[in-house]
Write a structure and sequence with these properties.
By secondary structure, the protein is an all-alpha fold. Helix content is 53%, strand content 0%. The chain has a domain of 27 residues. The protein is built from 2 helices and no strands.
Length: 59
């Protein structure tokens, strides 16, 4: 069912929109293509970059 301003008070349209919101909040499922060890290394590298003192901003 298409949800628009003309039928936004229709209970069915509201239910459809709420289901779409729930699906959007869940997001895409995680990919199975990434190796767990590779992901751990990438997370460690990103964490090290974000916590580097060069990123500290003092006005």
């Amino acid at each position: 069912m298409y949800v628009s301003w003309s039928n936004h008070l229709d209970p069915v349209a509201t239910t459809v929109r709420m289901a779409e919101e729930t699906a959007a909040r869940k997001g895409d499922p995680p990919t199975q293509k990434l190796d767990a060890a590779w992901r751990q290394k990438l997370e460690d590298a990103l964490w090290a970059l974000l916590n580097a003192p060069e990123w500290v901003f003092v006005p």
